[in-house]
Protein backbone atom coordinates (compact mmCIF):
# COMPACT_ATOMS: atom_id res chain seq x y z
CA UNK A 1 0.00 0.00 0.00
CA UNK A 2 1.27 3.47 -0.82
CA UNK A 3 0.41 6.44 1.35
CA UNK A 4 0.41 8.93 -1.49
CA UNK A 5 -2.56 8.85 -3.87
CA UNK A 6 -1.91 11.94 -6.00
CA UNK A 7 -5.66 12.66 -5.93
CA UNK A 8 -5.04 15.92 -4.08
CA UNK A 9 -2.44 17.29 -6.43
CA UNK A 10 -4.92 19.80 -7.87
CA UNK A 11 -5.86 21.20 -4.46
CA UNK A 12 -8.95 19.08 -3.79
CA UNK A 13 -9.70 16.38 -1.24
CA UNK A 14 -12.43 13.82 -0.69
CA UNK A 15 -15.12 14.30 1.92
CA UNK A 16 -18.08 12.06 2.66
CA UNK A 17 -20.33 12.65 -0.33
CA UNK A 18 -18.00 14.46 -2.71
CA UNK A 19 -14.85 16.47 -3.25
CA UNK A 20 -14.00 19.98 -2.11
CA UNK A 21 -11.01 22.29 -2.21
CA UNK A 22 -8.54 21.81 0.61
CA UNK A 23 -9.24 25.31 1.93
CA UNK A 24 -13.00 24.67 2.16
CA UNK A 25 -14.62 25.62 5.49
CA UNK A 26 -15.44 21.96 6.10
CA UNK A 27 -11.81 20.86 5.67
CA UNK A 28 -10.67 23.82 7.79
CA UNK A 29 -13.03 22.68 10.60
CA UNK A 30 -12.15 19.01 10.72
CA UNK A 31 -8.50 19.76 9.92
CA UNK A 32 -8.26 21.96 13.02
CA UNK A 33 -9.87 19.18 15.04
CA UNK A 34 -7.20 16.84 13.68
CA UNK A 35 -4.53 19.33 14.77
CA UNK A 36 -6.11 19.43 18.23
CA UNK A 37 -6.04 15.64 18.36
CA UNK A 38 -2.28 15.70 17.80
CA UNK A 39 -1.79 18.01 20.77
CA UNK A 40 -4.05 15.78 22.87
CA UNK A 41 -1.74 12.92 21.90
CA UNK A 42 1.15 14.93 23.28
CA UNK A 43 -0.78 15.48 26.52
CA UNK A 44 -1.48 11.73 26.73
CA UNK A 45 2.25 11.05 26.51
CA UNK A 46 2.84 13.40 29.46
CA UNK A 47 -0.04 12.12 31.65
CA UNK A 48 1.98 9.23 33.02
CA UNK A 49 1.83 7.09 36.11
CA UNK A 50 -0.68 6.45 38.84
CA UNK A 51 -1.10 10.17 39.55
CA UNK A 52 -2.61 10.75 36.09
CA UNK A 53 -4.13 7.34 35.27
CA UNK A 54 -7.67 8.77 35.16
CA UNK A 55 -6.65 11.73 33.00
CA UNK A 56 -4.64 9.48 30.68
CA UNK A 57 -7.70 7.29 30.14
CA UNK A 58 -10.01 10.28 29.64
CA UNK A 59 -7.67 11.90 27.12
CA UNK A 60 -7.45 8.67 25.11
CA UNK A 61 -11.24 8.62 24.92
CA UNK A 62 -11.26 12.27 23.87
CA UNK A 63 -8.92 11.38 21.01
CA UNK A 64 -11.39 8.76 19.77
CA UNK A 65 -14.24 11.25 20.02
CA UNK A 66 -12.32 13.93 18.15
CA UNK A 67 -12.11 11.50 15.24
CA UNK A 68 -15.88 11.12 15.56
CA UNK A 69 -16.29 14.93 15.44
CA UNK A 70 -14.16 15.14 12.31
CA UNK A 71 -16.15 12.35 10.70
CA UNK A 72 -19.47 14.05 11.51
CA UNK A 73 -18.23 17.31 9.99
CA UNK A 74 -16.97 15.59 6.83
CA UNK A 75 -20.50 14.92 5.51
CA UNK A 76 -21.38 17.06 2.51
CA UNK A 77 -25.05 16.14 2.89
CA UNK A 78 -26.54 15.91 6.35
CA UNK A 79 -27.09 12.34 7.54
CA UNK A 80 -28.14 12.63 11.16
CA UNK A 81 -28.66 8.89 11.49
CA UNK A 82 -24.94 8.37 10.89
CA UNK A 83 -23.67 10.95 13.38
CA UNK A 84 -21.34 9.60 16.03
CA UNK A 85 -21.27 12.61 18.39
CA UNK A 86 -24.37 12.77 20.57
CA UNK A 87 -25.50 14.75 23.59
CA UNK A 88 -24.29 11.94 25.86
CA UNK A 89 -20.69 12.80 24.96
CA UNK A 90 -20.81 16.50 25.85
CA UNK A 91 -22.94 15.79 28.93
CA UNK A 92 -20.23 13.36 30.11
CA UNK A 93 -17.63 16.11 29.57
CA UNK A 94 -19.63 18.31 31.94
CA UNK A 95 -19.48 15.55 34.56
CA UNK A 96 -15.73 15.23 34.07
CA UNK A 97 -15.25 18.98 34.45
CA UNK A 98 -17.23 18.93 37.71
CA UNK A 99 -15.20 15.97 39.01
CA UNK A 100 -11.78 17.42 38.19
CA UNK A 101 -12.73 20.92 39.35
CA UNK A 102 -13.14 19.58 42.91
CA UNK A 103 -9.36 19.11 43.05
CA UNK A 104 -8.51 22.63 41.92
CA UNK A 105 -7.78 25.58 44.18
CA UNK A 106 -10.25 28.43 44.17
CA UNK A 107 -9.91 30.61 41.10
CA UNK A 108 -10.34 34.37 41.50
CA UNK A 109 -8.25 35.89 38.71
CA UNK A 110 -7.29 35.05 35.16
CA UNK A 111 -4.32 32.71 34.94
CA UNK A 112 -1.50 32.43 32.45
CA UNK A 113 -1.23 29.22 30.44
CA UNK A 114 1.49 27.12 31.97
CA UNK A 115 2.83 25.85 35.23
CA UNK A 116 3.83 22.23 34.72
CA UNK A 117 4.73 20.83 31.31
CA UNK A 118 1.50 18.78 31.23
CA UNK A 119 -0.60 21.82 32.14
CA UNK A 120 1.11 23.90 29.45
CA UNK A 121 0.27 21.30 26.78
CA UNK A 122 -3.32 21.07 28.04
CA UNK A 123 -3.59 24.86 27.69
CA UNK A 124 -2.37 24.52 24.09
CA UNK A 125 -5.13 21.93 23.64
CA UNK A 126 -7.61 24.45 25.06
CA UNK A 127 -6.61 27.22 22.67
CA UNK A 128 -6.51 24.98 19.60
CA UNK A 129 -9.91 23.65 20.69
CA UNK A 130 -11.27 27.20 20.75
CA UNK A 131 -9.90 27.75 17.25
CA UNK A 132 -11.55 24.51 16.11
CA UNK A 133 -14.79 25.75 17.62
CA UNK A 134 -14.52 28.99 15.63
CA UNK A 135 -13.93 26.98 12.44
CA UNK A 136 -16.99 24.80 13.17
CA UNK A 137 -19.11 27.91 13.78
CA UNK A 138 -17.94 29.35 10.45
CA UNK A 139 -18.94 26.09 8.76
CA UNK A 140 -22.35 26.18 10.49
CA UNK A 141 -23.05 29.55 8.82
CA UNK A 142 -22.63 27.91 5.41
CA UNK A 143 -24.31 24.53 5.92
CA UNK A 144 -26.07 22.30 8.40
CA UNK A 145 -23.80 20.52 10.85
CA UNK A 146 -24.16 18.15 13.77
CA UNK A 147 -24.99 20.61 16.55
CA UNK A 148 -23.87 18.06 19.15
CA UNK A 149 -20.38 18.15 17.63
CA UNK A 150 -20.28 21.92 18.16
CA UNK A 151 -21.48 21.55 21.76
CA UNK A 152 -18.89 18.83 22.33
CA UNK A 153 -16.04 21.04 21.12
CA UNK A 154 -17.31 23.91 23.29
CA UNK A 155 -17.41 21.72 26.42
CA UNK A 156 -14.05 20.21 25.53
CA UNK A 157 -12.24 23.54 25.84
CA UNK A 158 -13.69 23.89 29.36
CA UNK A 159 -12.43 20.38 30.10
CA UNK A 160 -8.90 21.26 28.95
CA UNK A 161 -8.87 24.42 31.09
CA UNK A 162 -10.01 22.45 34.12
CA UNK A 163 -7.59 19.54 33.73
CA UNK A 164 -4.68 21.89 33.07
CA UNK A 165 -5.35 23.32 36.52
CA UNK A 166 -5.79 19.81 37.95
CA UNK A 167 -2.42 18.76 36.51
CA UNK A 168 -0.79 21.69 38.29
CA UNK A 169 -2.64 20.94 41.52
CA UNK A 170 -1.61 17.28 41.50
CA UNK A 171 2.01 18.25 40.90
CA UNK A 172 1.88 21.01 43.55
CA UNK A 173 2.70 23.61 40.89
CA UNK A 174 0.70 26.80 41.40
CA UNK A 175 -1.26 28.37 38.58
CA UNK A 176 0.30 31.67 37.59
CA UNK A 177 -2.13 34.55 38.02
CA UNK A 178 -2.27 37.30 35.45
CA UNK A 179 -0.80 40.22 37.41
CA UNK A 180 -3.16 42.92 36.19
CA UNK A 181 -6.29 40.82 36.54
CA UNK A 182 -9.02 41.95 38.85
CA UNK A 183 -10.94 39.34 40.79
CA UNK A 184 -13.27 38.11 38.06
CA UNK A 185 -14.27 34.66 39.32
CA UNK A 186 -16.14 33.68 42.44
CA UNK A 187 -19.52 34.27 43.95
CA UNK A 188 -21.54 36.96 42.30
CA UNK A 189 -24.25 38.11 44.64
Automatic annotation (TrEMBL):
Record flagged with keyword DNA-binding: no
BP terms from Gene Ontology: cobalamin biosynthetic process
Xref: SUPFAM superfamilies: Cobalamin adenosyltransferase-like
Top-rank lineage group of the source organism: Bacteria
Pfam families the record matches: Cob_adeno_trans (PF01923)
Catalytic reaction equation(s): 2 cob(II)yrinate a,c diamide + reduced [electron-transfer flavoprotein] + 2 ATP = 2 adenosylcob(III)yrinate a,c-diamide + 2 triphosphate + oxidized [electron-transfer flavoprotein] + 3 H(+); 2 cob(II)alamin + reduced [electron-transfer flavoprotein] + 2 ATP = 2 adenosylcob(III)alamin + 2 triphosphate + oxidized [electron-transfer flavoprotein] + 3 H(+)
Keywords for the protein's UniProt record, in alphabetical order: ATP-binding, Cobalamin biosynthesis, Nucleotide-binding, Transferase
Gene3D superfamilies membership: Cobalamin adenosyltransferase-like
Enzyme Commission number: 2.5.1.17
Family the UniProt entry places it in: Belongs to the Cob(I)alamin adenosyltransferase family.
Quaternary structure and partners: Homotrimer.
Protein name, per record: Corrinoid adenosyltransferase
Organism: Paenibacillus lutimineralis
UniProt lineage: Bacteria, Bacillati, Bacillota, Bacilli, Bacillales
